Predict the structure.
Amino acid sequence: MGEVSTAGSGVGARVRRKEDDRLLRGRGRFVGDIALVGMKELAFVRSPVAHATITGIEIPEEHRGAVFTWADLAAGGVKPIRAVSGLPGFKVSEQPALADGKVRFVGEPVAVCVAATRAEAEDIAASVFVDYAELPVNSDMLEAVTPGAPKVHDHWPDNVFLETNVGGNIAEIAATAPVKVSRTIRTARQCMVPLEGKGVVAHWDRHVEQLVLTTSTQMPHIVRAGLSECLDLDQGLIRVVAPDVGGGFGWKGLLQPEEIVAAWIAMRLDRPVRWTEDRREHLVAAANAREHHYEITAYADERGRLLGIEADAWVDAGAYSVYPFSACLEAAQVGSILPGPYDFAHYRCRTFSVCTNKPPIVPYRGVARTGVCFAMEQMIDAVADAVGREPWQVRLENLVPPEKMPFDNVTKKHFDSGDYPESVRRAVAAIELEGWRARQKSGEPDGRLIGVGFATYCEQSAHGTAVYHGWGIPMVPGHEQAQARITPDGGLELRVGVQSHGQSMETTFAQVAHEVLGIPLEKIKLVHGDTGLTPYSTGTWGSRSMVMAGGAVATACRTLAERLRKIGAHLMQAGPDGVVLEGGLVRAGPAAVTIREIAHTWYRAPQLLPADVDRGGLEVTAGYKPGSDHGTFSYATHAVALAVDPEIGQVEILDYLVVEDAGTMVNPMVVDGQIYGGVAQGVGTALYERMPYDAEGQPLASTFADYLVPGFTEVPHVRIIHMLTPSPYTEFGVKGIGEGGAIAPPAAICNAINDALKPLGVTVTNAPMTPEVILGAIAETRGAA
Amino acid sequence: MSAHAKTISLTVNGTRVEASVPPRQHLGDFLRERELLTGTHLGCEHGVCGACTILIDGEPARSCITFAVACDGRSVTTVEGLDDDPVATELREAFSAEHGLQCGFCTPGMLVAARDVVLRRPDADNPAIRTAMSGNLCRCTGYVGIVNAIRRVIDARNTNAG
């Protein structure tokens, strides 16, 4: 572990971002900003029905040659997407980039239309007539697993991608536990809604004889691997480039059918082509996240000490298995992470990845954790209610205590470090619980009901090799690599295969390099997101980039530092002892040479180099893995105080607090930004965002007027308290932090709403907790009374 | 389609532009595709997200629900035209200091809307800033940095004026 400073511009410094200026002047370069000479635009004909056999596609005579279907792609050798998990029992789906005789969700691409402008391409799309023979639809995952349900994939015996079973030693506890509480809990299907939709520009570079695909992605190297498999094209013939990417949150972490189609059309027509996802396409065809259903029981003693958890969980995985994460990652993850940050001994969880007539599920910020936390934290509050204690007290009763760290939990997750109970204690103090309790007792003049809720989670991030090997999916992270190169004028170029889409990597990786080498930030350039220029990487997902690629940058820079010291010592005619690199200078006693002088020597005055100089020169590619293959565990307690209006079901957040521990922070401003943004998305999950489907599988929201993304007046001015427990396993002790903010808000807000509704005897368990849901629960309780 | 094209004359970032445009083309596409002013971002194309906000005759407007043909004789200013604008300069500084942007996609629209708030509402407290900005969506920042940035500019201007 290195020295960590909070001043200056190295690790720990709150420095401004290098990427800001171009973005603030409207001079970034997003996919939609790219225009190539002769470029054509694409528009897709998409299925208007959820499940049907295609009995005919009529293309008007005047548009023949401008419309392509799967028959054209298949004749050209294009293969369907296969994202297979190696877990036993996994059923394989094949997803053709354009529908092959059958459609399985509304929005599925059926044909692609090519024209000079997007408007003209859409005109052509509107003129294509597709004959659909409609089939019975699976629009609800619980009905899809009942006997006799229509099958999404005809050759499967049922509609389950995968069933998993974890644990099992629960029967005795279930029979003897003094306290037993059960809940049915559900989260809604969501869209991730990055403000920039997906987009892709494809062309064949005749000079280098490569397909160049510029795409709004989080994982260019994985897109290249997937394209290679589906197009049957050597990876050396494909270059994937990510330009500025306008948010991702998981939606841009997959190989998309549209990417395959654009690539194939560009090669077929030998013309550049562009596809830009519009908002309606996103809301309809990419409603693909979060939909969980739990039947869960907690067993506890009279103090609320957890004895065991037993659960069945269903995840609506949609119609196909996505590349690279597969259809089962989310549900299978539920089984392994449902126990959360708690220490208990008995556990059984069965999960089902259910295949339905909806868009294929893609891991959204926090992946399964948001649903898991929503379920588990409701159970902690339910246990607290049953034993008559404050929910925070029951959390303290059960959280892994600091003296047990590092700790292996009931599902063999290896928690690296931290003081989980302290995060609760600080949250209780900082939200000023006593004051809210007093206010609850005295009542509100406007009749609203006050509630306070807490939720605690821990989040595995920067996953290692073993866990992904265990999933057996197309992507397994190994050593992350970075290349560091001193330029001839003494600057530094860093090349990494991860891709920033808002995470500020141009700044934070420069801070890491500065920490090691002392080169000023303005002389450090990050090159990323380009398979032609960077080392292989699985990309940016799972809160991994700073731990993994940041670790690789530090490792590469340390090797560079060693080489700089050797050359510098030689130039000063000093022995190796006592030669140090600090502040961008190599020093030997009072003598010093600059990195610029050393760079000049290597590149332009090599006659001055020592005879035994390292022939690798001032360029290093280094690989990195943390000391533990289990990754890092960041954690937090969220606390919220809110008011519920029982007459109209409206919720107003009055205070929102996050007490979090991400280990050492490379740039506290950036960490705070990730938390603020995550919480905003979590508030959306909790209170607003839901893609409703009717029984025919029709999505009932297709604009921002009916799919509600929280805005300035819905998101609270979040307060953050940091704890700083370094991970023992990573460079500088950093932990992954990118997703955490989005995990706990639905749970904390649900617990607060139920705290508020307690006097009415009302409990809500499903997200989003819209006025309709809250009023429905109140009416149901009144009706029963 | 070109048979239906209309010729319009307008000012874009201070420069006179004459163009033949299809009647159905919205101003955002016109600015991006014809004028190559790609700083105006299209986030929803149905007038909700605010990413495409520009100025028409000095007033904020959604370029995605404004037809280019309706801008004949008007003066249009995009984010690229605010390089030397004093309020925008203060806002850029404050957005950077307060981490008011992450991916940067909503940012041009945010700046145009924020500039309007600073000019029209020097009295705004934070809830008023939030209400005034509620026509713009951001998916990255959780809005805290944006509110703080606008707060910083309003406070600095009030201090300097006082």
Chain B touches chain A through 56 residues (CB under 8 Å). The longest strand of chain B covers residues 6-12.
